[in-house]
Amino acid sequence: MRAKITYFITAAVLVVYFVLVGSRGLLLIGQGTWLTVALGTSVLILPVIGVWFLWKNTRFVTRANRLAAELEAEGGLPVDELERDEYGRILRDSADAVFARRKAETEDAPGDWRSWFRLAVAYHDARDTPRARKAMQRAIALYDKKPVRV
Fold first, then answer.
1. Facing residues of 90 across strands?
2. How far apart are CA 107 and CA 87, in angstroms?
3. Which are the contacts of 119, defined by CB distance < 8 A and separation ≥ 6?
């Protein structure tokens, strides 16, 4: 719940920022000189990119949460079996062992979104965020029955 609140606060702050930057860009364009129009146009590009990025991430998180809810209802969410140090951080050897099992499970069932979801969690636990995101994207695509790029 805390992560959701933080996400919504951050998204709200970004939206306010995009509105402020966008209004400055429109004011610059309204000046009418070639320099202010060029600057205003370039300033408007930032909020457009930001809104697109925020939209893509919100969509990704929403879909991943939908998969997590379905897996939880099925009783298939991965169990936290990772060993931790005295500060609560995941031990690397423990994460690697769980990752090896999840990878083998995914290789045995490459068309199952559930195994890709669990692999994404294992990647995340191993602190490999880019691969975790790719695995989760693949799980989402398989769940939505969309073509998956290899």
1. 84
2. 33
3. 99, 102, 103, 105, 106, 135, 139
CA atoms within 13 A of residue 74's CA, in its CB half-sphere: 10
Distance, CA of 111 to CA of 34 (rounded, Å): 55
CA angle 139, 150, 53 (to 5 degrees): 60
* pLDDT band at residue 133 under the 50/70/90 scheme: very high
Q: What is the mean pLDDT of residues 113-125?
A: 92
Q: How confident is the model at residue 96, as a pLDDT?
A: 85
Residue among 51, 59, 53 at smallest CA distance from 144: 59
- pLDDT for residue 106: 93
Q: Considering the chain, what is the average pLDDT of its residues?
A: 90
Report whether 134 contacts 122 (CB < 8 A): no
* DSSP structure class, residue 145: T
